[in-house]
Amino acid sequence: TPLCNTVLRDEWGFQGFVLTDYFGVYGYMNSDQAIRNGTDCMLVAYDTETNHVKDQESATGVQAMRQACKNILYTVVNSRAYDPANLETGLMGWQIAAIVIDVICAAVIIALEAVTVKKFLKRKSGKIEVN
């Protein structure tokens, strides 16, 4: 608790959620201890006995899970995900530019193909001499 709760949250004023980058289930990592000590979310590669919060009935276990949920929800709600500017569903500028470039390239390719086919048909009919 001194690191995640006292130093990180109390001294430094951190209000987000604490996420482990790896929860190696080697027996020395315990999700019950992690959630009580301020870890809100644990990335787990596979299912084992130690990566489940087992104590879901006691007052301290429920309080720790409730605090972890609060930290996660607080972070999401106060993130860019809920920014009104993000609610626009239109295309971004770079997407519009990419579409315009694609259309121009397609038009150039079609024009070149038309010129090539026209020359081929003229040559086939014998109207153009081949040097």
TrEMBL record:
Please tell me whether the keyword Nuclease is annotated for this protein. Answer: no
GO BP terms: carbohydrate metabolic process
Q: Which GO terms describe its molecular function?
A: hydrolase activity, hydrolyzing O-glycosyl compounds
User: What keywords are annotated for this sequence in UniProt?
Assistant: Hydrolase, Membrane, Transmembrane, Transmembrane helix
Q: Where are the transmembrane segments?
A: 92-115
| Protein family (similarity comment) | Belongs to the glycosyl hydrolase 3 family.
Q: What is this protein called?
A: Beta-glucosidase
Q: Which organism is it from?
A: Candidatus Mediterraneibacter faecigallinarum
